[in-house]
Here is the input.
Amino acid sequence: MSEASLHIERGDWQRLGPLAGDIRRRVFIDEQAVPEDEEWDGRDPDCLHFLAWLDATPVGTARLLPDGHVGRVAVLPAGRGQGIGLALMRETIRAARDQGHTHVELAAQIQALDFYRRLGFEAYGGTFLDAGILHRNMRLVLSD
Here is the structure.
């Protein structure tokens, strides 16, 4: 059996929103019990979105806000442990560089801190609750 092919697509909410939104609904609302009104914050039309495809199946998503914050990083359970999250983040970081950002920031769920550290992010500040889930802010400097 051949290895699955991974591709990361960039686009706006109008184009990628239906598939990205479904992934976010399944991961954040259904799996993690994030309230819908907190997930759908109205900022999606202003963001650059990323959709990870494993062969012909959408399996992950992320978004880059205009201020360089990364958010809504989600991979469906069937795609976890295959490097999809890392590929999504690398593409998001590349896009932030392309846009001229000097750093990117995100609010990481506590259980994902090591994942982001592997990409070079450093945690700062204390922990806080967001949508009922413990988080910590993280930053990655892109240039000196």
